[in-house]
Amino acid sequence: MSLPRIALLLLLPSLAAQAAEYRVGPGQTYATIGAVPWESLNPGDTVLIHARPTPYAEKWVLGRRGTATAPITVRGVKDAAGNLPVIVGENATTRSQLNYWGEERGILKIGGSNTPADTTPAYLVVENLHLRRARGAFTGRNGASTYAKNAAAIFIEKGEHITLRNCVLEDSGNGLFIANATSDVTVEGNSIHGNGNPDSILEHNAYTEALGITYQYNRFGPLCAGCLGNNLKDRSAGTVIRYNWIEGGNRQLDLVETSSDTLRGDASYARTFVHGNVLLEPAGAGNRQVVHFGGDNGTTATYRGTLYFFHNTVVSTRTDRTTLLRLSTNAQTAHVQGNVVLVTAAGNTLSLTDEAGTLRHGLNWYKPGYVSSFGTVTGSVVDTGGNVTGGDPGFVNLAGQDFRLTAGSALRGKVTAPLSGTEAHPVTWQYVKHTTSERRAQAAPAHIGAYGDPLAPGAEVPDAETPDAAPSGSGEEGGCDATGGGFAGPLALLLLAALAARRGRRAH
């Protein structure tokens, strides 16, 4: 037997003895979320919060460290009707043994506490929870308190190797807020909508700044009524936004500079990847720009550099003008390829860019009459060839928001080569309404837009980008709950057996 296998076999009994399972809800060991000893969770521990007819009005902090092979998992368990457990921030209370700062910033906070002792939380999975209404009053360590206007359903102050999966985040100042002491975050399969504050441009459905963040398979819906923020605002390094549905907001994407020297100094800050998304610009929405890229603080030397925008489906139902992309200065470059950009108004109501920066575009589909800019181009717009124009892209049902392709779609077989610089990001998946995905069959030439044909059962697929596992969509206890590295083959089977054994032990 090999030494790695012997080492793993020696390790497994220790892991099995240490991990615990905490069950919360009607008929479970713990009646409330606050009864769980959050301050003493260990690697491999799992907290299962069961749905119940009335919401949990509780809030807490995660400040412990799991490991790559034994993450700490907080998982909601659906009821018989398929409902997630609902956790409301308004009038919420906190477990008395927890002592953490920034209570006014979120319902679930990750990082930044006295009890548990302050550390960088790591290898955490939060899934299948419905968190809403970080607004109004709550009771914390200092008694009665009030949420800040920018409070979030989930607020991550710091942490590493964190997965947020299959959650609903709504009716808060920010749905998700991540500060820049955070790294390696995956946000997948969530529904994030109805956040923001009326008449304010400062709060968003998601507002994030991390070293390495991937958004995939999420549904971003409109913000709350009268709320002026963006849908997804990001200041990260190593940003990948793929296979999402993003509808509404002042802008669908606002991708601007970081305030962190650490993030700015990382090589991944130089390039941002946006692909396979559905971006919807509704009539009467705020800014006519769908995407803003670069920066917004005026210190142009800190702005982002290059955007790769490919195989997206962009639909605007505005009756006035639509601008696909605004680059902040002439130092920004956008490579735009393989996208379908449909305006339901006349073709001349679409401009590709605002004024500044370099936009290189080819192998896209537009209505005829589109323009480079509605103003004076101070940068440059370069047509790299192969763009297609027409009156109808050939969606299955435009009015019904079914943007899959008909058999005769004009988008089929038009992308003759991948976009240079995106080799590590093959478009191998596609979004499925809502918050899930399916494999995309690989065609040569490829189809324009976020949709190709689904992969036939049993067909082989090329190596996919990493990480690229689709969310389970499961509210059951057996859903996928690991993030980061692991073991392969027989070692994985041994590890899974140990995990199953230790989960059979309930905490009391």
Describe this structure in words.
The two termini are 38 Å apart. This protein is mostly beta strands and 508 residues long. Helix 1 (3-18) packs parallel to helix 3 (490-503). The chain has a 24-stranded mixed beta sheet that branches. A 9-stranded parallel beta sheet has the order 5-11-15-17-20-23-26-29-32, with no helix packed on it. A hairpin with a 3-residue loop joins strand 40 (429-432) and strand 41. The chain contains 3 helices and 41 strands. The radius of gyration is 23 Å and the shape is globular. Keywords: Signal. This is Polysaccharide-degrading enzyme. Residues 1-19 form the signal peptide. Residues 149-250 form the Right handed beta helix domain. Residues 449-482 are annotated as: Disordered.
Considering DSSP H and I runs of 4 or more, what fraction of the residues is helical? Answer: under 10%
Principal-axes shape call: globular
What structural category do the secondary elements indicate? mainly beta
Could you tell me the radius of gyration in angstroms?
23 Å
Please state the average pLDDT score.
Answer: 91
Largest β-sheet summary: 24 strands, mixed
Tally the helices: 3
Q: What amount of the residues lies in strands?
A: 35-45%
**Total beta strands:** 41
Low-pLDDT segments: 474-508
Distance between the termini: 38 Å
